[in-house]
Amino acid sequence: MALIKSISGIRGTIGGKPGDTLSPLDVVRFTAAYGTWLAQQSSNKTVVIGRDGRISGALVERLVISILNALGLNVINLGLSTTPTVEMAVVFHKAAGGIILTASHNPKEWNALKLLNHKGEFISGAEGALILETAAKDDYNFVTVDKLGTYTEDTTALDKHIEAVINYPLVDAAAIKAANFSVIVDAINSSGAIAVPALLKALGVEAITVLNEAITGNFAHNPEPLPENLRELCNEVNKQKADIGIAVDPDVDRLCFVCEDGSLFGEEYTLVAVADYVLKHRKGNTVSNMSSTRALKDVTIKHGGEYTPSAVGEVNVVTKMKAVNAVIGGEGNGGIIVPDLHYGRDALIGIALFLTHLAHEKKSVKQLRNTYTNYFMSKNKIELEAGFDIKKIFTHIQKKYKNNPINTEDGLKIEFDTDWVHLRTSNTEPIIRIYAESNFETTADNIAKRIMQDIREAM
Length: 459
Hints:
With about 450 residues, the chain is α/β, with parallel strands linked by helices. Helices cover about 40% and strands about 25% of the residues. It is globular. Its EC number is 5.4.2.10.
């Protein structure tokens, strides 16, 4: 069982003792802290909430609504929804903020409160720290009975989200319809079962098969869209001879594709392909976190733009995108951020832009994938003992590779010509993550092994 408090929200497993898990008391405490912070920001009393299809979603939803109302805040509930839909609905409703009830790619026993500001973006580190401080003190002020907040439901938010995607200037629904794609979707028993088919139909796609369509929250497989979890989708695409497979996570902010032969397009290349299309039509800069593939930098330079890495974490990517005026950005985990739609990872706009790109290129998914440089990533971690001195470890590594370009914005990223390795500590576990990338799989593995040995020497 676990409870993880971070600057962007709180997540944990359901069931167990308060303080050790995401118990009802913890949901109440952190919702009250967030609502208190919102009330201090302005006189705007409107809060938008929505949830994914998790088993615990309805239970957590009822608690959150009651506490927000008890603080005098007016709740607009989207019900079963997606993370990007809630983000956009905050802006649609000119709300003070929003809460997304989702643990994203975590297994079914997890849930979370993801906290948004009035722009529909994740709160900053400083804001998150204030909310955690309020929760630690239980410093709330509930209203009297004649000042309780109101409750309304919005059943149109997803339609508005899809309409915004369809009307986005670089989305070509006519070309997608003419391409007559056959699509298989892995909806992982959550919100994607509603959102993705609705989008595809609006884009003119008629041949749609949905796997794991029942919204039970009892996920058919581990919900993170990684290769080992997508075998059913890959097999079905191959079996049905479909043009493309689409997989999303439970809250529909991550996205990956399957080629027509059942092979994986690669979640690292979701952003690369979408950025390639966007940059062909809109010159500018790009951003991804520094644990993402170099292929985005290659595509950006090809189109005359400048690539900038950011620290890991969506809020950090967004901050960097604003700083460099990026026209497209995101994360290598399949997260697409299109800033003039909204500053949040959004699988729906990702699907629409990817299918437009595919239709315009008149290539198969596999042929499109083959137009991008093949990079291989080796992902590893080292567990640390209690009381470890991370500064000592990183100083040792930095000295050893002092002649190489090093970025210290988020741990250490060391460049080796076209290869790189990124070391960073986890926010939630006593580990160091080591990601290495190269044109050759064995090289990436060897770089990671060498760095892991360097770390052990410094411990």
